[in-house]
């Protein structure tokens, strides 16, 4: 089961993150407008927001194991469509990839809660590292694969092989169901999850840190180049942001899982984000590299803990699926606004520090939400 979870997590990111580095080539090849290019990058987040609240119910009806396999099949279908069917296929395929990815995003934390109830932090750390590694691989390899002769189509479609392999391995888990099996599960609070203050705090912490991630990944290269850094160097600094997040993604949830109260670890992620953003505002090349390192550490800490909270704050796997669906639906809708608001603020003024100030404000909100979300309570 552990290998299956890690492989699914890898597929949930390698297919999504691979588009960004290839976007200039895709735009030129298909003659896309700037607004169409932006839509291409936000479609998966829109799919996450729409599909996430429905996934828990679908999983209960069809069985969570079968539903995850369906999600993998949708990811594979979307991967093929967007690489082979022109402009319509590009957008339709991207949307389908987003739907399949949303299914896996929601159900993985619930599967971890069901299969490893005493090791939620440790196992969450493993699959978070798989996600981060997949994102880094997509950012690093897709352009070289394209220029090596595969073209953007082939560079995107080649990762479908990983989805096929994962699907075959996951097939042995197709009968998995997370339904109630005992008195603890049956005693779950039936009230709507959106009425639970703790669920909102988990959602805000997860959603804001996702907003920060997508805003940084989307705009950091441009911010660095506007301060005089060469494009290739800016790309390397952005990759550094991903690479340094690997260690905290592995260590922090594992250590946090040893305690019932995780407020200190959540505070660490927010404080590091605040320090990193303030450092980036210094607008020097040396400061930018330091800032990327600090923000990368913050991302590894905060994103992994955001996912782990979906297991920590749930009584059982069914509640974990409910919390995961709610947190990821609202959270990714919030995340989708990050790059848009930062870009809009830059249009109002040539000073990137206005947009960075907005991200800094969201860091403060996440810090406050984390102090409630990290307490030893369950929904």
Give a brief outline of the structure.
The protein is mostly helical and about 375 residues long.
List key phrases describing it:
379 residues; mainly alpha; 15 helices; 83% helix
Describe the structure.
- The chain is mainly alpha-helical and 379 residues long.
- Helices cover 83% and strands 0% of the residues.
- The model is unreliable at 181-189 (pLDDT under 50).
* Main structural class: mainly alpha
Write down the Rg: 20 Å
Shape: globular
Main sheet makeup: none
Terminal CA distance reads 26 Å
- Number of helical stretches of at least 4 residues: 15
How do the SSEs run, as a string of H and E? Answer: HHHHHHHHHHHHHHH
Compute the average pLDDT: 86
Fold blueprint:
Elements: H1 2-17, H2 19-30, H3 34-62, H4 64-84, H5 86-115, H6 120-157, H7 160-170, H8 183-186, H9 197-226, H10 231-243, H11 246-256, H12 263-280, H13 285-312, H14 317-348, H15 352-373
Helix pairs in contact: 1-5, 1-6, 1-7, 2-6, 3-4, 3-5, 3-14, 4-5, 4-6, 4-7, 5-13, 5-14, 6-11, 6-13, 9-10, 9-13, 9-14, 9-15, 10-13, 11-13, 12-13, 12-15, 13-14, 14-15
């Amino acid at each position: 089961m552990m290998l299956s979870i890690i492989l699914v997590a890898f597929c949930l990111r390698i297919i999504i993150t691979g588009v960004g580095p290839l976007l200039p080539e895709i735009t030129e090849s298909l003659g896309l407008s700037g607004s169409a290019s932006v839509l291409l990058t936000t479609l998966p987040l829109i799919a996450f927001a729409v599909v996430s609240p429905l996934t828990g119910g679908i999983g209960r009806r069809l069985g969570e194991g079968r539903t995850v396999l369906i999600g993998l099949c949708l990811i594979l279908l979307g991967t093929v469509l967007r690489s082979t069917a022109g402009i319509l296929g590009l957008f339709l395929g991207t949307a389908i990839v987003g739907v399949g990815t949303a299914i896996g995003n929601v159900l993985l934390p619930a599967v971890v809660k069901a299969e490893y109830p005493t090791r939620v932090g440790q196992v969450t750390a493993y699959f978070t590292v798989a996600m981060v590694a997949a994102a880094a691989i997509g950012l690093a390899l897709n352009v070289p694969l394209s220029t090596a002769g595969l073209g953007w189509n082939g560079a995107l479609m080649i990762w479908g092989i990983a989805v096929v392999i994962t699907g075959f391995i996951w097939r042995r888990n197709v009968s998995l169901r997370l339904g109630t099996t005992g008195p603890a599960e049956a005693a779950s609070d039936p009230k709507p999850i959106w009425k639970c203050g703790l669920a909102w705090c988990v959602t805000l912490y997860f959603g804001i840190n996702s907003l920060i991630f997508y805003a940084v990944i989307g705009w950091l290269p441009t911010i660095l180049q506007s301060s005089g850094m060469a494009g290739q160097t800016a790309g390397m600094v952005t990759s550094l942001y991903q690479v340094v997040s690997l260690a905290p993604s592995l260590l922090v949830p594992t250590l946090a899982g040893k305690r019932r109260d995780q407020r200190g670890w959540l505070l660490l992620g927010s404080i590091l984000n605040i320090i990193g953003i303030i450092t980036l505002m210094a607008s020097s090349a040396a400061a930018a590299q330091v800032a990327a390192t600090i923000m990368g550490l913050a991302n590894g800490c905060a994103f992994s803990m955001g996912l782990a909270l979906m297991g920590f704050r749930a009584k059982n796997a069914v509640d974990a699926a409910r919390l995961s669906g709610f947190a990821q639906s609202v959270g990714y809708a919030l995340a989708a606004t990050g790059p848009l608001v930062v870009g809009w603020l830059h249009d109002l003024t040539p000073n990137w520090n206005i947009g960075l100030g907005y991200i800094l404000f969201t860091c403060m909100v996440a810090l406050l939400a984390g102090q409630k979300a990290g307490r030893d309570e369950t929904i």
